[in-house]
């Protein structure tokens, strides 16, 4: 599995998790594990495309 595919999977997993009604702050450790070294990468991209998505992530 390529790194990019893994990244996309993590982002989808996180987006689904937020959409399911769990705020990003409810379990910050889980969010942190998901995005460990890639937080900036995910946030920059999401900020430009989906404002709601990035706001949920930025609340952390």
Describe this structure in words.
With 60 residues, the chain is mainly alpha-helical. The protein has one domain. It has four helices and no strands. It has helices at residues 3-19, 28-35, 39-49, 51-58. Helix 3 (39-49) packs antiparallel against helix 4. It starts with a helix and ends with a helix.
Q: Give the fraction of residues assigned to helices.
A: over 70%
Structural class determined from secondary elements: mainly alpha
Helix count? Answer: 4
Instruction: Count every beta strand, where a strand is a DSSP E run of 2 or more residues.
Output: 0
- First-residue to last-residue Cα separation: 29 Å
Q: Report strand %.
A: under 5%
Low-confidence stretches: none
List keywords for this structure.
mainly alpha; single chain; 60 residues; flat
Short description:
By secondary structure, this protein is mainly α.
